Amino acid sequence: MDIATRVWNHKWKIDPIVRSLIDTDFYKLLMCQSVFRNRPDTNVTFSLINRTKDVPLARLIDEGELREQLDHIRSLSLTRGESTWLRGNTFYGKRQMFRSDFMEWFENLKLPPYHLERVGDQYELTFEGRWPEVMLWEIPALAVLMELRGRAVLHDMGRFELQVLYARAMTKLWQKVERLREVPGIRIADFGTRRRHSFLWQDWCVQAMLEGLGPNFTGTSNCLIAKNRDLEAIGTNAHELPMVYAALAKNDAELAQAPYDVLADWHEEHDGNLRIILPDTYGTEGFLKRAPDWLAGWTGIRIDSGDPATGAEVAIRWWKDRGEDPRDKLVIFSDGLDEDRIIDLYRQFNGRVRVSFGWGTLLTNDFRGLAPGDRLAPFSLVCKAVSADGNPTVKLSDNPKKAMGPAEEIARYKRVFDVGRQEAMDVVV
Amino acid sequence: MDIATRVWNHKWKIDPIVRSLIDTDFYKLLMCQSVFRNRPDTNVTFSLINRTKDVPLARLIDEGELREQLDHIRSLSLTRGESTWLRGNTFYGKRQMFRSDFMEWFENLKLPPYHLERVGDQYELTFEGRWPEVMLWEIPALAVLMELRGRAVLHDMGRFELQVLYARAMTKLWQKVERLREVPGIRIADFGTRRRHSFLWQDWCVQAMLEGLGPNFTGTSNCLIAKNRDLEAIGTNAHELPMVYAALAKNDAELAQAPYDVLADWHEEHDGNLRIILPDTYGTEGFLKRAPDWLAGWTGIRIDSGDPATGAEVAIRWWKDRGEDPRDKLVIFSDGLDEDRIIDLYRQFNGRVRVSFGWGTLLTNDFRGLAPGDRLAPFSLVCKAVSADGNPTVKLSDNPKKAMGPAEEIARYKRVFDVGRQEAMDVVV
Question: Is the ipTM of this complex over 0.85?
Fold first, then answer.
């Protein structure tokens, strides 16, 4: 290495984890544009929740370092090249996916303040403000916490141990890729930004998938990596939309309608492969039963909780009931996937529907078994909208272990959405 | 990377494999000094022999490239720093291991010409000249052929495949190291120069052993790596001494005596841990039976062919017969070792004798199963003294599959050394 490079490297006060506002999931930007148009003035609070209590984040991560990373993110704004890419690139086959008014707003955006407090061995990290602004904190906040936790563990390891660690991680990932490449026609995208081991590692994982699967690797949810590596940016929408719409409902009737209002707004904006239903926010079964007919015309469904095979069977039955041919429909699996499950689900449903996978944490952060005491194993960290205009949000999902919100509100939602008995399943990551 | 580094890297006409005259095994230099004193004018021919006929070296390796590498080696001479190290360093606890007259000669040495010819799919590569000069070709010639074969395979692999390849190789080696580190008191040295995957890889393997085994990693046979990494240089003597001494014998009586003449010369020069018997050149059993009593006083025995446990038992019985306590004696295993065998042998003999290991090819070149078609698997390449002053050399060893020399000479040697039935064993590497 030359001296200048070395000196330059040592000049950094911190080693920033998130260095770009588009180091985020593509669906965040799609949703942000939708929110910017439809509900720009909603006041929303996002909150970081570590579901894995035995990972004592506040003991592992120095508060000062965490603040430096978050402050660095607040200093970021869209670069000219990033803006050009968002404005000029084709996403899902469509030019000018992002409207001029949204882009102008985004070009002038800096992320709003955060609130950080240590409570016991965990951090309380919340973001409160106008929905389109605070929602953009979710992914970078998660990525920062995940990577700082990783760094805390890596800090104690020697140069050689680190070499071996990454050699093992590479070997492990490549073994997965080699298994997946044996399944012709399989289609997988990277959904692993939020709980990645680190940015560089996610970038390597994307390269591995591209190298191993070629065109069967359909792209990455990470906009920065998609831009840098000239890949498709992948993603549609998430639970945050129905959760906030639902929280804003003034009565039970509006509440029951809220998830469909979300998709009605989406229907106006998007077509084709962007018309993907995420049906599980308040129970897949009931959502589909009460869905308006125009929703059956949408391209596909994303299955993000509950038993995935069951979810797919429910979807197939629903399409048939509504006179649609499931073979034209897309089922995207995105919950707790690893290569075995991917291959099983593919074999089970390929041909009956079009199958696709959004592979997350076990693509970009499978360090299980690689560090002493398994201290690099991924853990279940989420960052969710917890209130909207003063009302708490609720998520039920198809797995009661993933439910969130105040107990009385959960009960109300269960009643309104007619959610019966649900099977509890361990949350993998 | 900075521009200057990149430009510099592209300026090399070749990427030299051997860049130093001390990128060789330590025992070569010890033997060279002994030969330089005792038999300097012997005319010896060394010849490269590929025992693995299905590795078509001449199809894999371009003759021009091979010549460039060999020519580069001929351009090398001892650097000032290397000379200082050899003169000033302590080897086996001894200062000034290398005498001034030898060092002066070595400082002025350039390696003699080589003879290279393609015969079918193999190369005939021979070195003829004064013994102390030509003997120094053995290790670099082997290393060049091994690494050029590796490069031929690597040339067809992409950047990513290469990353995964080395990640896997590192993972594989580290798994071995982790198994070995669980055995307290085990003592292992690197003997893997000659059939290493590459210089850089050997250097990494040495670091891995050091990192994993700490002081239980006793050193490396490679002088350059020992110098660069401040490790012990390890090694004593090899078959080439008795083979050449035997070839120079004028009659059967002298022949029978030749292996002991070698050790008598060695006895004069060295003591302590350098007094290691290599008994298998013409059969261990007979060699020990007829050995003079002073040889039983030597420190240990290196077991380099045949069944290693049997060899060690033979040695133990011999020491006991000669009134020596085997627990004071050193047994060095150095043939076809991998971690399982190392651990087995250690458990079997630790406490009964002092046990040590010289781990070669499967330390520095275990790329088995790592490349398509297993084209990086190590293969059995040797470079041996084949004649001395016009007489063919013979090696029998304790494994008839390792025997070499003209058939009638093999028969004569078997008769003179009273070698009975031997068990044939596959040569691992």
Answer: no
